Amino acid sequence: MADLSDLALSVLPALINAVGVGGTIAWGVISYKRTARREAQKPFREQQLALCMELARIVGRIGASQDDDAAEAERAFWRLYWGPLSVIEDQRVRDETGRLARDLRHRGYREPAERQQALQFRAVQVTSAIRNLIRTTWSVDLADLSSNPPHEER
Asked: What is the rounded CA–CA span in Å between residue 127 and residue 15?
């Protein structure tokens, strides 16, 4: 019996050491993979952020004006909508930009103010979706505003 305990006491430190080395190697591999993945995604994420900010500026212009600036903003929106936006958007941004596109195409408004009010509402919805995409993708500590009503006229 004494031989068995002596054997256990002599093997135990080597076993603990092996488990420690194995754990350290595993942690290193996992950390490396996470870092490599994050670095590989970085160019896409940066482009996504740039396009999100551009879209937010464009829909802000659509919602804020009814003049030539709004017409140019609408053209810029369509260029993004039919092009690069479809590469970087998530489902909520896709849904909200689709609703804005539908409202931009709609011709049944009784007066310009009715159209502008609808576009302002959609602009707020799109920017809220963009905010949520940035919040979740970049792990930025922004409040989720999806349950709050859009801001009112000041």
From this structure: 57
Local structure of 107: helix, strand or coil: coil
Residues 98-110: pLDDT tens digits?
Answer: 999 999 999 888 8
Distances (CA, A) of 150 to 59, 66, 142, 145, 146: 14, 20, 16, 9, 9
Phi/psi at 5 (5° precision): -70, -35
Residue 26 lies inside a defined structural domain of this protein: no
Report, in angstroms and rounded to the nearest whole number, the Rg of the chain calculated over CA atoms: 27
What pTM did the predictor assign?
0.71
Residue type, 89: E
Find all residues with CB under 8 Å of 43, minimum gap 6, and list them: none
Q: Give the number of domains in the chain.
A: 1
Domain of residue 55: give its range.
Answer: 42-137
Q: At 80, is the secondary structure helix, strand, or coil?
A: helix
Does 142 fall in a domain?
A: no
